[in-house]
Amino acid sequence: MSAVPEASSWTSTLAPAGPPTAVTPAGKLNGFEKRLRDLQAHGVMLSQCANTLRELHVDRGNLYDFIRIVPSGMGEITIRESQGWAYIHPSAPESQL
């Protein structure tokens, strides 16, 4: 039995707030590329919101080539929910409340 669910079980939308450093080549210095590729190898779909890129003036060419661009992160979540997926939003650390 695999410890990581299949892609039909969940997805990941990155960089909901702030620059998407985890999905840019600069992230290679922090080990993000290997981590993201490992997640992808286990069926996680990695998506980046085009609206966030535009608002933060991030060029799509600076993202890893395996990251899927979606027009709207919230729109993607809405579509997935209509397909029966669940949206789980992490809460802020207690120190930030």
Q: What's the SSE blueprint?
A:
Elements lengths: L10 E4 L17 H10 L3 E5 H6 L12 E3 L2 H10 L15
Parallel strand pairs: 1-2, 2-3
**Unreliable parts:** 1-7
Largest sheet: 3 strands, parallel
Q: Determine the structural class based on helices, strands and strand pairing.
A: alpha/beta
CATH superfamily: DsrEFH-like
Q: How large, in whole angstroms, is the Cα Rg?
A: 14 Å
CATH top level class name: Alpha Beta
Strand content: 5-15%
General description of the model:
The chain has 97 residues and is of the alpha/beta class. It has helices at 32-41, 50-55, 73-82, and strands spanning 11-14, 45-49, 68-70. The relative contact order is 0.18. Residues 1-7 have low confidence and may be disordered.
Comma- or semicolon-separated keywords:
3 helices, 97 residues, 27% helix, alpha/beta, 3 strands, 12% strand, single chain, 3-stranded parallel beta sheet, Hypothetical Protein Ychn, Chain: A
Give a short synopsis of this structure.
The chain has 97 residues and is α/β, with parallel strands linked by helices. The protein is built from three helices and three strands. The protein has helices at 32-41, 50-55, 73-82; strands at 11-14, 45-49, 68-70.
